[in-house]
Amino acid sequence: MTNRKIAGIITAIIGLCAIIAFFNDGMNTPLLSWPLEAYLGVAFTIGWLTNLPTFLAYLIAALIFVLIAVALYKLGSWLYGVVFKRS
Q1: CA distance 65 to 23
Q2: Cα(23)–Cα(45) distance, rounded to whole angstroms?
Q3: Residue-by-residue DSSP string for 12-33
Q4: Could you report how far apart the first and last alpha carbons of the chain are, in Å?
Q5: What pLDDT digit, counting tens, does each position of 21-65 carry?
Q6: Are 7 and 76 in contact (CB under 8 A)?
Q7: pTM of the predicted structure, to 2 decimals
C-alpha cells in the first residue's frame, strides 16, 4: 500500500468522524452510538423532506455516506500528491 493510499484512507476516516461529530453536536447520546444516530438522522431528514419510501431513504442515506467517504479519500490522496510532488 502506498503512502498516497494511506493518506487518503486517513483523510476519509478523519473526515467521516468530523461529519458524524457535527451531526451529533449537542445530543446527549453515547459516543459509540454517534455513527448510527448520524445515519438515522440523515435518513429521517431525507424521508421527511421528500416523502420517499422508508427503504429508499435509508438507501440514499447510506449512498451519501459512501460518496462522502470516497470524495474525502480522493481529496486526501490528491493533497498528498500535491504536497509531496508525486503523480
Answers
A1: 12
A2: 12
A3: HHHHHHHHHHHHTTT----GGG
A4: 15
A5: 999 998 899 999 999 999 999 999 999 999 999 999 999 999 999
A6: yes
A7: 0.87
